[in-house]
From TrEMBL:
Keywords (A to Z) from UniProt: Iron, Iron-sulfur, Metal-binding, S-adenosyl-L-methionine
Membrane-spanning ranges: none
Domain Radical SAM core: 188-408
Name this polypeptide is given: Anaerobic Mg-protoporphyrin IX monomethyl ester oxidative cyclase
Iron is among the record's keywords: yes
The keyword Iron is assigned to this record: yes
Cofactor: [4Fe-4S] cluster
SUPFAM superfamilies, per the entry: Cobalamin (vitamin B12)-binding domain, Radical SAM enzymes
Species of origin: Carboxydocella sporoproducens DSM 16521
One GO cellular component term noted in the UniProt record for this chain: cytosol
Signal peptide: none
Family annotation (InterPro entries): BchE-like, Cobalamin-bd, Cobalamin-bd_sf, Elp3/MiaA/NifB-like_rSAM, Methyltransferase_Class_B, rSAM, rSAM_horseshoe, rSAM_sf
MF terms in GO: 4 iron, 4 sulfur cluster binding; catalytic activity; cobalamin binding; metal ion binding
B12-binding domain segment(s): 11-144
Amino acid sequence: MSAHVVLLTPPYHAGVIEITGTWPPLNLVYLAGALRNKGIQVEIYDAMSLNHSVAEIQARLAQVRPQVVGITATTASAPAAIATLKAVREVLPTALLVMGGIHATFCWEEILTSSPWVDVIIRWEGEETFPELVQAWQDGRSFRTVRGIAYREQGEPCATEPRPLIEDLDTLAPAWDLLDWDLYRYRITDSRLAIVSGSRGCDQECRFCSQHHFWRKQYRERSPESLVQEILELRDRFGVEMVLFADEYTTKNRERWEKFLDLLLEAQPGVMLTMETRAPDIVRDQDILWKYRAAGFIHVYIGVESANQATLNALQKNIKAEEAETAIRLLNEQGILTECSFLLGHWEETPRSIEETLQQALRYNPDLAHFLFLTPWPYADLWQQVAERVEEWDFSKYDLVHPIMPSRAMSREELREAMVRCFKVFYREKMRQYCQEAEDSFKKRYMQKSMKVLFNNSFLTEFLAGMKK
Ligand code: SF4
């Protein structure tokens, strides 16, 4: 009989990414599909979206009694994931407990040393590794031959050789049917939400980011045909009304991207689409931006990070400061909502430089802005440079809204106060703009709902109280 595997999300809530909706765990959907294809019984338990506590997870798994439990985590959710596996170990003493995700991929040694209840770490993508691991465990074989994992050999943490990345992403079969679809909604449009992945990897090398390390500087794309097919299937089989692209770099290849847009225009799925991409690509695509909107893109997120070219260069952001402003204008002209992030808290940050960033955000005038702290993960290139200044070692606070280090001129408390002020000033101006707009447009309704969510459901709720009146 095949092993029974439960794939789990950790009970982590920071009031940041989750404020606009509940997000399907795409990585677990892919893993579940790969396990099932090898004849392994698998279920997805999205404890995060269900808002279950560690005690509830423990009770449920004690009842289900799977032989293998896999949990995924980012750096911010890693402490919750490790604590959850500890509780699971108490009720499933002989189960194989597995952890995956970007944090565990790089911090495997530390986790295996400090958390004896974690048996194995899956490093990098897991669709080929996880089924092979389960098979080896069931057969009682050594893990030494399973590429892409870390485990203990005679009590000592060790890692096997990296597994080559999957060549053809179109061969993967996400198990969408294993989700409880009633859970997944985008609050702003009150729509059933799916997340898809059209590519994996990024060829950029921003110093605060680690995606290029996780994907080993490789970039792989799915065919436009399979991506359109998936969107149609999500709509027809599961009633999906809105799709978010999880790609690290959605629009890298213009030819492929335009083909995808053309196929969507032909198929007219009537599904709302949203994604993150780079400002230079929006400028590059200005002659075909109308296709973005006509194909269904209603909302695009751009990482602006800074108006200061020297800061952008120091972060290896590889964009020109003015490109972001142009990209926002071009998207606005097409009626596409723009959302941008601005990074605060680098070493040279002062009250004056934060004010300049705020003024830049007001001048660029995206529909939504986020003022986030520069938070290099412990495995990012930037980490080595800043590690000695880091004051926050609780990884659950690595959520971009808690400063993990002071700047040369400002304490962490001062940085946090300055960040809250940026949000307040920016959204006061947005409220003024949208209150003045007479037309009851889609954009106006979208913005009103977005601000309501920000005021009522986010980490900012306590700070913004009073502004909504
Ligand atoms: S921040 Fe974005 S563009 Fe830069 S390396 Fe990370 S994924 Fe790529």
